[in-house]
Each structure stands twice: as structure tokens, then as C-alpha cells.
């Protein structure tokens, strides 16, 4: 199972266009199991849709975008989509589309990238207008996981309040909030690129 998961991760990384090092860094795989996220009972897709700015996140080795990261949630006839845009290490605009397959609880989704399931995405808290706290995890083996947390705001003026509230939400679920890193949004790059 571990080798299968590792190959899947390498396949995703290859499809995203990132170079796979000779000795891969597996620091993104953590011991333990995915958190019991206990999402709210429902999520209004219509209110949640639209653009969100990423305020902070646990670093994601698979992501092409390294700064100016925005998430655009779009409701289509068959499934919601998440379009991640930003600027990569070469200062090029990137865009990655993932399918969001709704689960029984409306605030939980299975994320699919290029047809591969890459984990469960759960909106733990949102007020729809200014912030959203999101947890994403994939159980690699019985004792290893790959997990991320994201703090979103509708605009950067709401970043401090979103960060403060989401840290409390993540901490209450047992997530290591010290692993969250501020997402860079330099004016000189973001204002001209997006």
C-alpha cells in the first residue's frame, strides 16, 4: 500500500509538471490518521462559490502556485470545481482545476485531480463573506497521512481576522497550527499578474 501511494503521489507530481528529485523529500507524509473533521451539517454551495484568497496554509509540495494563490469555486451542473490560480517559481501564471465530489455531508468533498482521488476536502467553518477554514487529508497507510489546512479570505483586508478564527478552529480539531505558513501576496507580483 505504501509503495502504491508513493507512486500515485509521484504520478500527480509528474502530471503537475514538477521535477521529481532523485531522493524525494517525503516530509509531507506525517504519522497518524486524518483528523475527525466533524464538518458542519450543511454548506450553501451558492454562497461559498466565487473567489477566495489563500491567507495561509501548510506548505504543499505538489502545488505549482507559490504566491498570489487564489481559489475559485465554481458550481457546474455535474460537480463543483476548484480552480487554483497563482504564480509559480518561474513567475508564470498557473491554473489547476480539481473536481470536488460532494459527500453525504454537504461541507465535505472528495478531491479529484486528473482522475485521481487526492483526499477529502472539508469546510470546517465559513461565514461566506470573509473567511473559510478548510482541512484536506488523504490517509496514505493505516499509520501515515498527507494533510493540509487552508485559511481563505474573500480579500486580503480580511486576512488577520480569518487567520485568528481559523487557527482556533484548527486547534480545536487537533491540527498543528504551528505548521501554517502565511501565503505570499506581494503587490508588485499579484497586482500585475492576476
From TrEMBL:
Domain Lipocalin/cytosolic fatty-acid binding: 49-184
Gene Ontology CC terms: cytoplasm
GO biological process: one example: response to reactive oxygen species
InterPro entries: Calycin, Lipocln_cytosolic_FA-bd_dom
Superkingdom of this protein's organism: Eukaryota
Pfam family, one: Lipocalin
Keywords: Signal
UniProt xrefs under SUPFAM superfamilies: Lipocalins
Signal sequence interval, chain numbering: 1-19
TM region(s), chain numbering: none
Name this protein carries in UniProt: Crustacyanin subunit A
Amino acid at each position: 500500500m505504501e509503495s502504491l501511494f508513493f507512486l500515485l503521489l509521484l504520478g500527480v507530481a509528474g502530471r503537475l509538471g514538477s521535477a521529481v528529485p532523485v531522493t524525494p523529500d517525503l516530509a509531507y507524509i506525517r504519522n497518524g490518521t486524518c483528523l475527525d473533521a466533524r464538518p458542519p451539517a450543511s454548506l450553501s454551495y451558492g454562497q461559498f462559490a466565487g473567489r477566495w484568497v489563500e491567507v495561509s496554509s501548510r506548505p504543499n509540495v505538489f502545488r505549482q502556485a507559490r504566491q498570489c494563490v487564489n481559489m475559485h469555486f465554481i458550481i457546474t451542473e455535474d460537480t463543483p470545481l476548484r480552480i487554483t490560480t497563482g504564480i509559480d517559481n518561474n513567475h508564470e501564471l498557473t491554473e489547476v482545476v480539481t473536481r470536488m465530489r460532494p459527500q453525504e455531508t454537504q461541507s465535505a468533498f472528495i478531491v479529484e485531480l486528473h482522475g485521481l482521488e487526492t483526499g477529502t476536502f472539508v469546510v470546517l467553518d465559513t461565514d461566506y463573506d470573509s473567511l473559510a477554514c478548510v482541512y484536506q487529508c488523504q490517509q496514505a497507510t493505516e499509520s501515515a497521512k498527507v494533510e493540509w489546512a487552508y485559511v481563505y479570505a474573500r480579500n486580503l483586508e480580511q486576512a488577520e481576522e480569518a487567520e485568528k478564527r481559523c487557527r482556533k478552529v484548527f486547534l480545536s480539531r487537533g491540527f498543528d497550527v504551528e505548521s501554517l505558513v502565511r501565503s505570499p501576496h506581494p503587490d508588485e507580483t499579484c497586482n500585475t499578474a492576476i
